[in-house]
Amino acid sequence: MNSAKRLAHISRQLEIHGAVNIAELAEQLNVTPKTIRLDLRKMEEMELVERVHGGAILPQDSNGVFRIKSRRQTNLREKEAIAELALKYIESNDILILDGGSTPQIMAQRLDNIPITLLTNDLLVAGEVLNKHNITLYLTGGRLSDHRQEGVYTLFGRDAEAVLGKYQVNKLFLGVTALHFEQGLMVYSEDVAETKKAMIRAADQVICLLDYSKFHRQAFLPFAGLDEIDVIITDDRISQEDREFLTQKGIKVEVAQTNRELDKSS
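^ that's the sequence the OP posted. Answer follows.
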């Protein structure tokens, strides 16, 4: 089993139990305890775990990639603002992909009942447009996420990739786990990474949706470089330095206003 798959396994165990034991992981993965210690050290360097004697735990007040359910509930104001701004990119008769995740789901909730073709790998996104009869809806198919207990209903795997390979769309609204300026766009699962790669190949324009808490973070797997992104829509916490860096890379940066300054002054 390669490093990425080991890290994904460790992440699942952390989600379920909140802590992991080196000896148990070594037995589960059929590797040496030394290999597990190196994996945990790498994860600690990415601020995804806190090592303790004999194993590791999720860091206190973790803002890492593991707690999916809590992640979906954080930065809601920013996600709503990003979704609202992203909607301006959708026009009648568009053919588009809405990736899985909380921000695309908000987009689907607020999407007008206009004639478009929408392809998604997220059952929650699909559910939001079921009664919008002008929208032609396609699902990718594929294997359903193992994280259903955390409220994740995305589809991925070879079947999803095969469907995505059949189509060419105008626009992709893409979600990510982390954005690292050197590594690019990153996620925690190899299967998810391959599905997102297939989405990018299918799209004329790649529009990346991510709140600023995901900037300068790392997950396990890079799946796209900055040169594959056309637009980033983020929130108004982004620094001017970061905006200029991305603009120099040829990426259009759209900033969604969250009215935080109004809150401070009231």
